[in-house]
Amino acid sequence: MRALPRLLLPALGLMVAGCDLAPQDPPPAPPPAAFFKEDGDWRTALPADMAPRGPWWTVFGDDRLDQLECRLDGENQDLRQALARHDQATALAREAGAAQYPQLSYSGGANRNQLSRSVAILSHPNLYNNDLAEGSLSWEIDLWGRVRNLVAAASLRASASAADLAATKLALESDLATAYLGLQALDAQQQTVDRAVTAYQDALAFTQRRHDGGAAAQIDVDQAQLQRDNALTQATENRLRRAQLEHVIAVLVGEAPANFNLPPQPLVALPPPIATVLPSTLLERRPDIAAAERLVAATNADIGVARAAFFPTFDLAAVGGVQSALPHRLFDAASRLWAIGPSLSGPLYDGGQRSAATDQARAIRDEAVAAYRQTVLAAYREVEDNLVALHRLESEAASQSSALASAQRALSQAETRYKGGLATYLEVTTAQNAALAAESSAIDIRNRRMAAAVGLIQALGGGWQGFSQTAMP
How far, in Å, are 76, 151, 347, 361, 374 from residue 161 at the CA level? Predict the structure, then answer.
């Protein structure tokens, strides 16, 4: 045992001086993009997903949405699955990290043995006891960085898993906000259609009285009834869509649809104002970009593990204990046993197995690099898509508002002309259809603007709150 320090010190020296066979390549550069077409004050960004996002949904100023988002964070089952996956990755990282330290174990036993009388050694009894108690130590001397790279890869994958968890959470929060605002849009549509049904019912009754008095033809009655029935069908279809969307929200907040209910609340809000200058550092909060970058680093460490397999493995092992054929002599000095020393093992010929494993590790890294760059490109596209949607839909909303006002004036004039006997009912139905379509389109545009606002917040990794609004150089 006195020789143990003399053996451990060189081993520690080898570990400190050990080399690292992982490629020392710089992180992959994202696809170049000096600016976004929809906002010229952007620069290329690097991941910083640990930056705080906060309750980004509060920009919509809806207390009910705030409450639903809080319920999602605590009760959504998809989010709990993502959290469990992250816990698994963290545990695997701890498991890999244990390989850096000596492994200690113990064993013991008490056996009664009988040798074959045919082969028994004359000088040794053929019936004897064998009592044993021992402890052992083993330690791989990480000369080539195999263990360090295994630990680094596992730690990076755990970090990527944390980013995946954040991405899942952000996506679910965005889905909930989009569904909730869509539900409000359906409530606004329902309000519009219900008003139309009432108006069409009154028009049908008026036309029926005119027909009964001989002032209107049967075709006018049929057209009025067609309008009323079509509106009733649209109202029923709208209620169906609302019920299904309410079920979606129920599942997102971890509630059984049968136990969940949201009273109608028509959409009246407008998209929150976007910062006049959106710094590109906002993209750095995107967790999917961070996860992709960390997976590249993990696959780089995997190459180091594969390359280390070409070199011999050094292990330090030690065993100490007691062994005796007589139980009462087990702990006597004469019963002590021990062994200590290094061992070496390495490849001579494997038919190209290790070379193939290294090539595979390099190909996996190439795939991870391409996936990272594709993730960045997708981030650029999502920001562009939602920025252009917000800009163009704002213009659409203005023109549609003017169209709706015109349609409502035309309907009022058509109804007046019909009541005065100056127009046929076909003119009224045409004006009614145009007015209802114009109002429905206006609500749809507002809903799309709100959805684009949510999409932009998600594309920016959680909104623009808490960041300086000064353009980055």
Answer: 18, 15, 35, 20, 19
Spatial distance between the Cα atoms of 267 and 444, rounded to a whole number of angstroms? 10
- Pick the closest to residue 323 from 308, 333, 309, 311 (CA basis): 333
Helix (H) or strand (E) holding 103: strand 103-114
What gap in Å lies between CA 432 and CA 410, rounded to an integer? 9
Q: String of b and e for 444-455 (b: at least 16 CB within 10 Å)?
A: bbbbbbbbbbbb
Q: Are 148 and 142 in contact (CB under 8 A)?
A: yes
Residue 472's pLDDT band, with cuts at 50, 70 and 90, is very low
| pLDDT of the residue at 40 | 43
pLDDT of 123 reads: 58
pLDDT tens, residue by residue, 28-69: 666 655 444 554 443 444 455 555 567 899 999 999 999 999
Sketch out the chain's domains with CATH numbers. 19-104+142-312+355-459 (1.20.1600.10)
**Greater pLDDT, 347 or 404:** 404
Q: pTM score > 0.90 for this model?
A: no
- Which of 182, 172, 186 lies closest to 69, judged by CA? 172
Evaluated on CA atoms 468, 448, 38, 69, the torsion sign reads: positive
What's the distance, CA 148 to chain centroid? Answer: 29
pLDDT-derived band at 384, boundaries 50, 70, 90 = confident
Q: Residue 39 gets which letter from DSSP?
A: B
Confidence of residue 278 (pLDDT cuts 50, 70, 90): low
Distance separating alpha carbons of residues 440 and 253, to the nearest angstrom: 29
SS3 313: strand
User: Of 40-44, 295-299, 313-317, which one has max mean pLDDT?
Assistant: 295-299
The answer to whether residues 182 and 267 touch, using CB atoms and an 8 Å cutoff, is no
Alpha-carbon distance values, 136 to 101, 105, 193 (Å): 14, 5, 81
Least confident of 12-21, 119-128, 183-192: 12-21
> How many angstroms separate the CA atoms of 145 and 305, rounded?
7
Measure the CA–CA gap between 459 and 42, rounded to whole angstroms. Answer: 14
Alpha-carbon gap, residue 418 to 426, rounded angstroms: 9
Q: Are 270 and 181 in contact (CB under 8 A)?
A: no
